Amino acid sequence: MNKKIMYFTFPVILLVAIYFMGPTPAKPVYDPAMPTVPQNAEELEKYVALQESKHQLKPDNEARIIWADSSKKKTPYSVVYIHGFSASQEEGDPIHKSFAKKFGCNLYLARMADHGVDTTNQLQYFSPDRWWASSKEALAIGKALGDKVILMSTSTGGTMSIMLAAEYPQDVYAMINMSPNIEINDGNAWLLNNPWGLQIARQVIGGDSRVFPPDSLKDKYWNNNYRLEAIVQLQELV
Questions:
Q1: Which residues contact 110 (CB under 8 A, 6 or more apart)?
Q2: Domain 38-184 fold
């Protein structure tokens, strides 16, 4: 009897052990130190341009400052727009521009890490750590642009806005989060950042990338074809 029990239970125990010994994504490290950015308008513009020049970007995907007027002075309020996963500043257009113009705010349109890059392996190196660094830099630039910072975001940009407000409550005056990503809307998403998550995703998708049908607009401003590593890291983030 005992031999029969062992015959059936041992393979189950072995499979469970193999599962939990499987690869998982590295845990993100959220460094709380804020980056230093220039406070002078001309130097700040050069700083943003230099950062963007390090990458081969798709047209109109680059980060930029939109000044409230030609004086390029610090405004009482600045708006920092943080786009969502696999997106760009276009995701919030024209709301971010219209809001900033209506209330006389300097506006910073951030380009989050690994996004907007013209490459065949899109979002391959996306990670929570890198997005956190981009978010901190965006907030630092927002502080240089205005006395009080309003964070505006869509989707996973909302995830980062909430994290920024929680970590730096004294630096975030208000948030406007449009459809914030608090959890992936898929009951099986929890598998992604657990053992063998990436390997399971590859089997389900049938390849290394998630591919969507071609779309002339989305291809310009969104990642319409991106690596599955990015989805695993996204689940780790949220």
A1: 63, 80, 81, 82, 83, 89, 134, 135, 137, 138, 141
A2: Rossmann fold (3.40.50)
